[in-house]
Design goal:
The protein has about 90 residues and is mainly α. It is built from one helix and no strands.
Length: about 90
């Protein structure tokens, strides 16, 4: 009877060890998955930030080009009108 109990105890410990090992593996896998997901999200974030920065740069350049090209257009007609007035009087 004692031997039977010892065998049962041994089997119980073996099962417990196995269960713990499986639990550890599961946790390790979950951790790995979380890490992978986090890295993926960080990469996406970087891509988005780069895209935003690129678009902002484009907008700034476009704005600068508009400012530069708008000035002569406004100055030109006013000078033209001014000289036109003086030439006719």
């Amino acid at each position: 009877k004692q031997r039977e109990q010892e065998e049962e105890e041994k089997e119980r410990r073996r099962e417990e060890k196995l269960r713990k090992r499986e639990q550890k593996l599961k946790e390790k896998e979950e951790k790995k998955t979380q890490k992978k997901l986090k890295k993926q999200q960080e990469e996406e974030q970087k891509k988005l930030q780069l895209k935003i920065a690129t678009e902002e740069r484009k907008l700034l350049l476009a704005q600068r080009n508009l400012d530069c090209s708008a000035e002569p257009r406004f100055i030109q007609p006013s000078i033209h009108a001014f000289t036109h007035r003086y030439n006719h009087h």
